[in-house]
Amino acid sequence: MSDHTPTPLILDTTVLHELARGEVGTIGLIQGYDADGQPMVVSALAITATLIEARNEEAADAMHGLAAMEHVMVAALKDAEQAENLALVAVATGLDVCEAHTAAIADVSICPILTFDAGRWNEASRSLDNHLFTIEVTDPDL
Description:
The chain is an alpha/beta fold. About 55% of the residues lie in helices and about 10% in strands. The protein contains seven helices and five strands.
């Protein structure tokens, strides 16, 4: 048995929106990662943005289910220093605060962002000291 812990994946709002819509392939992908012990991190602000857009109980249930998974950690702002870092990332990248939180988590942790649209992170990546790494999901059923 290996003691290796995989590098955590940071889930962005494109992934969360698919989960909130009940997209079966995406649900299966994330459940598979969890079953395999793949650590995943999701911004509390990204969950908030997803729920604001979806505005339904099914989306809320999906986000609660995601947060309850064994290998998913919801990242909230814990102090003024993290809030300041988030503000700096938002200003540097031009991202809204919810997307900037995902970028800030990825920037600090040097972990890849799991996304359905890697191109959306290119400009933000160029604006930060650390390059943002992305993993683009092209077909969640594979």
